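Async update (no meeting this week)

Hi team, since we skipped the sync, here's where things stand on the single-chain job. The sequence we agreed to prioritize is pasted below, unchanged from the tracker. I ran it this morning and attached the output directly underneath so nobody has to dig for it. Comments welcome in thread, and please keep replies under the output.
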Amino acid sequence: MPKTYNEIYFPVLLQGLIAMTIAGALLLISFALGKKVHNRVKDMPYECGIEPTGSARERFSVKFYLVGMLFIVFDIEAVFLYPWVVVYREFMMVAFVEMLIFIALVLAGFFYIWKKGALDWSGEDLSVPRRATARRSQ
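Output:
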């Protein structure tokens, strides 16, 4: 059993060094062995085999960024499940109740953003209530 910080963190440091060495070696090998062909077609941006159209400077909808942030928030919440699993046997019912509260709060947040329409990609402007848009169209 490791007793000092050096013994505890040495495997983590070693794994990081090995990963960086492998990544660097693969990049250097592909750079050294790869073909260096430069022409107009090769230098064009690749868009799934479709001819690029329009400008790359188009604005994205705020919903795109909102869904990205929501994904990160709900993805990070899954990270908090791992420490809970590790200590579950030690704390039993207390840990179970705490996790129920945590999941209830996460689900409350999910249902809140769902109700607000943050996950609706229908294309209509959700900042204007539906009754107001019905009156405007008449």
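Quick observations from my side:
The chain has one domain: 5-137.
The chain has five helices and no strands.
Reply here if anything looks off.
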